[in-house]
Amino acid sequence: MKKIQKWMGVALAAALSVTALTGCSQQAKTSGTVAADGSTSMEKVIGALGEAFQNENSGVTFTYNPTGSGSGIQAVQEGRCDIGLSSRDLKDEEKASGLTATVLALDGIAVIVHPDNPVSDLDVDAIARLYTGEITNWKDVGGNDASVVLIGREAGSGTRDGFESITGTAEQCQYRQELTSAGDVVTAVSQNPDAIGYASLSNLSDSVKALSVEGAAPSEETVKDGSYPIQRPFVLVTKTDAPLSGAAQAFFDFATSADAAPLIAKAGAVAVH
Amino acid sequence: MRKRQQLGETVIHGIFLLLGLITVGCVLLITVYLVLSGIPAIRRIGLFDFLLGDTWASTAASPSFGILPFILTSVYGTAGAILFGVPVGFLTAVYLAKLAPPRVKAVAEGAVSLLAGVPSVVYGLVGMLVLAPGVRKLFHVPDGSSLLSAIVVLAVMILPSIIKVSVTALEAVPPEYEDASLALGAAPVETYFRVSVPAARSGIAAAVVLGVGRAIGEAMAVMMVSGNVPNMPSLFQSVRFLTTAVASEMAYSSGLQRQALFSIALVLYLFVLLINAALNFFLKRDKEG
Fold first, then answer.
1. pLDDT at A1 over 60
2. Cβ B128–A178 below 8 Å, yes or no?
3. Chain B 226-245, CB below 8 Å of chain A: which residues?
4. CA distances from B52 to B70, B230, B232 (A)
5. Looking at residue A7, what is its pLDDT?
6. What are the structural domains of chain A?
7. Residues 249-278 of B with CB under 8 A from A
8. SS3 letters for chain A?
9. Residue of B267, B269, B241, B264 whose CA lies nearest to B253
10. Chain A closest CA to B20's CA: distance in Å?
11. Which pLDDT band, with edges at 50, 70 and 90, does A26 fall under?
12. Which of B92, B202, B206, B223 is nearest to B154 (CA)?
């Protein structure tokens, strides 16, 4: 335990010297490191933003650690990173522990089926009843006479949390498969004509068919104007009472500026700023 | 002069000791860390509820942490892999060690080595794209990601360890045994199964145990083909192994859930320790016998 404390001391000293350095050079040019940690669903968005930011500020090193929303939030809390990334809103207890959430973008969660599936539109209620096992045959929602294979994400995934909270199916989903990445979900659905799954808008590919929900096909426009109902926020998490380092603050300002919007759009999410 | 030499020897001894201790230190560190981080959750959940509970709902509002489904799945999955993998691996080993022409043997052994080198994510991917849809069509089940798919993948994955260790054991049988048997008029195949195999039996047993170890510790490949839902195991049902239980939830876990994942890792570690103890037992007997 003593050893850990010693190491933390060293790390703290290093971090302090970095902030001291950035403090001096702030007027001239931003430099230092920006460490982001969190949601795997935000990988494309944050990757694009980080790259653009690094190109504009040659002195800055931007790192992103794709660990998941929960880990990212924990990392900010423990001071292991500058900005946490969460693909869900902060829980009340997380806000109470001194964290601030800034919505960066919106992400539509597409409900996907095999391209051969005749079903092309469902409402949220039907999706919920499919996932809770109330409807077990595709013919009950206008499809073939075949049993429904429910594919989802693992417990704790931001996409699963988003999907289940929007459809009101938390803790009731009768999954046939729980996969650990959006890519796996898309692959699994593309391999089974009776499967249904969900994934971020940015993870869609031609190998699966995205259902329209209550008449609205999942797209940037329908997410932004709110007509597509299954959507969730991409959130930047920071400490409420501790100021960001110079470089991290510069990145934060950049990410929430209008300049970043086209980059976010290119990465498949919908910018809100 | 002699003193200097002695000093040199001592220094080199010290360096070797240090390097050797690194390995031991790693094992000790992992063991201590696993025990320390695995115990708290077990104490909070209760040993019986943890090991014998049949419901795993780690993120529910009132969470339950029963890992019996994972334990049984790991045991069944490994047993199934052994059931399929051992006969194939054992007979392949007998063929390669005793019957195969040198050229065939060279090619086949190369293939076996290659099979050992295939990354497990590749097994998983092929399983996901070929095996699971195949199982689905063949058995007319709604979805092919199941215990059966995982067993098939594991059976293929343990083949290299079983074949290689068995071949080594069979080749180490003194040729005099076989010559004596042949001279007494036994047919070659009779000789191999009645003389060579019994003589190499502890080595073959070690090969099987090694296969068990590989199968029970595999995570990536089975995660991609087993469906990953914490059900009680059944052949065509989506299941979750001990390894995949840790791997699939670790990234997003927090609080008691994370501690419980460490406890699962501890249980898995104890399983592997048991298997290693069995392996040592067989190898020791081999040396003595």
1. no
2. no
3. 227-229, 238, 240
4. 10, 14, 12
5. 54
6. 34-105+239-271 (3.40.190.10), 107-231 (3.40.190.10)
7. 249, 251-254, 257
8. CHHHHHHHHHHHHHHHHHHHHHHHHCCCCCCEEEEEEECCCCHHHHHHHHHHHHHHCCCEEEEEEECCHHHHHHHHHCCCCCEEEECCCCCHHHHHCCEEEEEEEEEEEEEEECCCCCCCEECHHHHHHHHCCCCCEHHHHCCCCCECEEEEECCCCHHHHHHHHHHCCCCCCCCCEEECCHHHHHHHHHHCCCEEEEEEHHHCCCCCEECEECCECCCHHHHHCCCCCCEEEEEEEEECCCCCCHHHHHHHHHHCCHHHHHHHHHCCCEECC
9. B264
10. 23
11. very low
12. B223
Among residues A7, A28, A218, which one has the least CA distance to residue A112?
A218
pLDDT tens-digit profile of A170-220?
Answer: 888 899 999 888 888 999 999 999 999 999 887 888 899 999 999 899 988
Fold entry, domain B68-288: MetI-like fold (1.10.3720)
Interchain contact B144–A (C-beta under 8 A): yes
Instruction: Tell me the shortest Cα–Cα distance from B250 to chain A, in angstroms.
Output: 9
Q: Do B143 and A70 touch (CB under 8 A)?
A: no
Q: Please identify every stretch of chain B with a pLDDT value under 70, giving residue numbers as ranges.
A: 1, 252, 286-289
The domain spans of chain B are 2-51, 68-288
Decide if B130 touches A, using CB distance below 8 A.
Answer: no
Q: How far apart are CA B275 and CA B156, in angstroms?
A: 20
Task: Note the pTM of the prediction, 2 decimals.
Answer: 0.77
Given phi > 0 = left and psi -120 to 50 = alpha, else beta, which region is B227? left
CA distance A185 to A40: 14
Which two structure tokens, joined as six digits, stand for A158?
């931001």
ipTM confidence score = 0.78
- Maximum C-alpha span of chain B: 82
In angstroms, the CA A218 to CA A222 distance is 6
pLDDT attached to residue B25: 95
